[in-house]
């Protein structure tokens, strides 16, 4: 079959020019006899026709809701002292210079109507739940509706707990007691009890991968490691020089960094062998009287990238920063605070540090960039705080009250 010669059609701009413009359509579909097309040519023209017709329709992309970042602080988060933010869960806008957003009403009142100390805080974006522990109870909130779902009391009271990454299980220590309760995070029911090494069950952390729980007691120099599948103690780290206070671990779960009673500094343990590797004392500062906790350093955290270790110094109202890329970590800077720190943790992305004093520190510069204040302008302090991020009304990730390392390899 003889092929027809292509016909050139000029656009209007070139119709009166001696030299036609380059806007030329060759062999347009509507000038050809379809009977003269072969199958390949037909498919080519059908494809081009689809492109031509689609140009008349504009499809607007569906935009994902913008993420927003909030800091949640449970109060009273420094003992039962209501002058540091009153009673409730205070929410601050991290994207707007930590402006106060709202106060979520809380529970945690004893039989005499006295507001009890908040002992811990944890949350799960997956289950959309927030938990606060007090001296006697564990309180559960819905993160979206902000409604209180339940408050349950436990034998022996409650202390600083930790939640599994899937949001299903909480390891809840009795209040400086002899055991940890393993809690069903949905119902609050007790699944199992794990005995403490000695009386004083207190601080609890769960590894980022959820495989292990780390249990520290006020009256023991031993850090215990629990397999979360079997809920059995599989390893002990130490003994350290004194009873363990706050602690943290690296993401690879090879090292732990612990505060110990009577020490301005920290010690490092090997999580695989159980041996104590390093004893580090702060240089250039002396021990002195402290308002609370009874030990000079009560607060220790790794930046998420594990390049720095930050240490609380209550007696000198400051944070000491250590270079953690060398061993032992090297003391490099001191950041003065507005009060005595008793805790420290970091934002999920590692950009900000939050000591319990309510100072907000930019990690990159080691400079204080904001101070937490409530709806009345009063200074807020809390040792129980974490970040929760939302996309629209839905929580998408939750931080940790412990400053755990996040480098898993």
H/I helix tally: 1
Radius of gyration: 30 Å
Helix content: under 10%
What share of the residues does DSSP label as strand, in percent? 35-45%
Number of domains: 2
- State the CATH class of the largest domain: Mainly Beta
Tell me the total number of β-strands.
31
Shape: globular
The class by helix and strand makeup works out as mainly beta
Mean pLDDT score: 89
Distance between the termini: 68 Å
Oligomer: single chain
Q: Any idea what the CATH architecture of the largest domain is? A: 7 Propeller
Sheet with most strands: strand arrangement = 5-4-3-30-31
Task: Briefly characterize the structure.
Helices cover 4% and strands 41% of the residues. The chain is built from 1 helix and 31 strands. A hairpin with a 3-residue loop joins β27 (352-355) and β28.
